[in-house]
Amino acid sequence: MESTSKHHVAHPFWPRDLSIPNYVPNDRSMYEILTFLFSVSGVFLLATWEISGRENASGRLGVWRRLAVCWFAVCGFIHGVIEGWFSLYYEVIPADQSFLSQLWKEYSKGDSRYVIADNFTVCMETITAWLWGPFSFWAVYAFLTNKPYRFVLQLIISLGQLYGAVLYFYTEHRDGYAHSEMGHPIYFWFYFVFLNALWVVIPLVLIVDAWGQLSGAQALTDNARSHKSKRS
């Protein structure tokens, strides 16, 4: 019992008996961390909104399309930088005091799987960081330059995001929501539910949009081929 107590380090994560022997508490406040996250995301959003409003070879993008492009820009930052950090340093995050490590320790109050390097979260975040991060920036470029494959990228990225988010929620549901303080207004409802639900709702809308765009393009191609065959 004496040996166990020596190795038990107090922490704010759930379940309360979770063993994190190398945990070091954050020295930055929740306010500082969230201000950084939303400020940088806001800069990406505003910069992309400004750039996407410029006229290109096919004219100006509509409001909804510009919002979609802004979404992909913010996704590129979050996937590539925030989640990329986790994919590289997940083993040292509990003890590390780098700003992004502290961000993950703060978020782990809503899902402690991140502070114990849970196998699912490591695999899922690594795929997200190194695939959907670069692909999101690629999608921004594709829409700004009117590339013909832009909706293919939108469909691929959104399907990957939706699949990852559904697995993220479902695996925690199977665990009985043991890694968060169930019902907590910030840690459970804001960190765990709301922030991650964005990657269910928005990708679902974009999947439907890409489906319609690609189906419409295929219908035009089919009609053109049909008319051409009739003439010949």
List the defining traits of the structure above.
232 residues, mainly alpha, 7 helices, 69% helix, elongated, disordered N terminus
Can you write the helix and strand succession as a string? HHHHHHH
Low-confidence stretches: 1-6
Shape: elongated
The amount of helix comes to 55-70%
* Quantity of strands, as a count: 0
| Overall mean pLDDT | 93
Fraction in beta strands: under 5%
Provide the structure class. mainly alpha
Q: Terminal Cα separation, in Å? A: 89 Å
User: C-alpha Rg, in Å?
Assistant: 22 Å
Largest sheet: none
**Helix count from the secondary structure assignment:** 7
Summed up:
By secondary structure, the chain is an all-alpha fold. The chain is built from seven helices and no strands. The longest helix has 45 residues.
Helices and strands in order:
Blueprint: H1 2-7, H2 30-52, H3 63-89, H4 99-107, H5 119-144, H6 150-174, H7 187-231
Question: Can you describe this structure?
Answer:
By secondary structure, the protein is mainly alpha-helical. The chain is built from seven helices and no strands. The protein has helices at residues 2-7, 30-52, 63-89, 99-107, 119-144, 150-174, 187-231. Helix 2 (30-52) packs across helix 3, helix 3 (63-89) runs antiparallel to helix 5 and helix 6 (150-174) packs antiparallel against helix 7. It is elongated, with a radius of gyration of 22 Å. The model is unreliable at 1-6 (pLDDT under 50).
